[in-house]
Amino acid sequence: MRKVFVILALFMAVSITAQTHEILKHNGEKVLINYIKTDTNLIYFTNPNSSEEEKISTYAVQSLKEQSSGLIQVISSKVDINKGLVFLKDNEIAGLKKVATTSVFLGRPKGMSFNDLSVLKKRRLQEKANQKEALFVVITSETFDTIQADLYSY
């Protein structure tokens, strides 16, 4: 009976430490998690004390360290504000901090195509994001002459 108890305790300890990872975020925060998977710019995990599945954007995570072996996997490098913005989808912002909400209005210039106007709106959006030191943009709505977006940072 004692052997069965020792073997069960050993399996429990191995399964707990095998899943434990440490996330290092770009803002310097370290978080212990139970890693599940990485899929399309998101990392899925559970907290060690909970079984509820959570997610975080790969843009918010610098590295993922496996606790049992010490193996470190680099997830993303920090985005440089001088190289431009990163346009994300609504579901890829988990773990990023919302800086502001902004909008751009250009009017209806005659003879300009929708694509050319869209490029101008995004360029103007980049200028506004640089003023607020935001690195990530999520476009919430876009019409012919107006674009609205949420700005995010680390």
- The helix count comes to 2
From the alpha-carbon coordinates, what is the Rg to the nearest angstrom? 22 Å
Terminal-residue CA separation:
53 Å
Helix content: 10-25%
- Major sheet, described briefly? 6 strands, antiparallel
Judged by helices, strands and strand pairing, the structural class is: alpha+beta
Low-confidence stretches: 14-18
Please describe the structure with a list of short key phrases separated by commas or semicolons.
four-stranded mixed sheet; alpha+beta; 154 residues
Structural account:
The structure is a single chain. With 154 residues, the protein is an alpha+beta fold. 23% of the residues lie in helices and 40% in strands. It is built from 2 helices and 10 strands, in the order αββββββββαββ. The strands form 2 sheets. It has a 6-stranded antiparallel beta sheet. Strands 7-9-10-8 form a 4-stranded mixed beta sheet, with helices on one face. A hairpin with a 6-residue loop joins strand 3 (42-46) and strand 4. It starts with a helix and ends with a strand. The model is unreliable at 14-18 (pLDDT under 50).
What is the topology?
Elements: H1 2-19, E1 20-25, E2 30-39, E3 42-46, E4 53-57, E5 61-66, E6 72-74, E7 86-88, E8 97-105, H2 114-131, E9 136-142, E10 146-153
Parallel strand pairs: 7-9
Antiparallel strand pairs: 1-2, 1-5, 2-3, 3-4, 5-6, 8-10, 9-10
